[in-house]
Amino acid sequence: MLYIKAKLPTENLPIKRVMAKLFQSFVYTWLDDKEHAGYKHPNGKVFKSMNFKINYNQHKILIKYTALDKENEKKVAMAILQNGLNLGKIHIVDTEVSLKNREISDLNTIKVSGFVVAAIKDGNSSKKIYLEPKSNKFQEIVYNNTLQKYEALYKKSYQGSLKINIANQAKDGRVFFYNKGSVKAWNAIYKIEADKEMLNLILNTGMGANCMQGMGFLELH
């Protein structure tokens, strides 16, 4: 996992709503085009092999970026060290980067927390209805999405056990922004049982929808 700490030249620049879009664009600039295009599942869904989370407070930014291919983490780190962090027209030279290993090697169960997104379309308006983790439909969508991502990224069917249980969910949801759109998600704690390869896939690529839009990042407990 890549940690990126940066300081903006002034406090509270009005970029919070586009921060995820700007960082996503920065990452894709330095990686192979295939990462931007994504990996297609036989059902047509496209999955990305990366994930990130951004915290922005006053003039300080903390970004956590993970990739299934660890070389991509190194490429992004080197790009920042050599050229600075570019968020649109904002060029940040006051940055710190560090790489941390959080690969699972000997566990088949992990406890994690994060804002995971799952939604269904409103039949009347086609607008998205964002689901709470405690709902059965949310859990069905996330479970199927995780299996499909595995199949798309590894080009094989998953043969192990997969259990995703909700241990706790925050009462109130939070609105996140990506470019000009928004999504709603609830922070929750998940207990996940799977084989090593699947657990590392989840930690490196996130869970649920919008994982390359700053959502679905999971913190180990």
Give an overview in words.
The chain is of the alpha+beta class and 221 residues long. The protein has 2 domains: 2-99, Alpha-Beta Plaits (2-Layer Sandwich); 109-220, 2-Layer Sandwich (Alpha-Beta Plaits). It has 5 helices and 15 strands. The chain has helices at 19-30, 33-37, 70-83, 136-154, 196-205, and strands at 2-7, 39-40, 46-47, 50-57, 60-67, 85-87, 90-92, 95-99, 109-116, 119-121, 128-130, 163-169, 174-178, 181-193, 219-220. Strands 9, 12, 13, 14 and 15 form a 5-stranded antiparallel beta sheet that branches. Strands 4-5-1-8 form a 4-stranded antiparallel beta sheet. The chain has a two-stranded antiparallel sheet with strand order 2-3. Strand 13 (174-178) and strand 14 (181-193) form a beta hairpin. The longest helix has 19 residues, at 136-154. The chain is globular, with a radius of gyration of 17 Å. The two termini are 16 Å apart. The model has no long low-confidence stretch (mean pLDDT 93).
CATH class term of the largest domain: Alpha Beta
Helical/strand content category: alpha+beta
Overall geometry: globular
Largest sheet report: 5 strands, antiparallel
CATH fold group of the largest domain: Alpha-Beta Plaits
| Relative strand content | 35-45%
Question: Which architecture of the largest domain per CATH?
Answer: 2-Layer Sandwich
Q: H/E series, N to C?
A: EHHEEEEHEEEEEEHEEEHE
Intertermini distance = 16 Å
Average pLDDT, rounded to a whole number, is 93
- The tally of strands reads 15
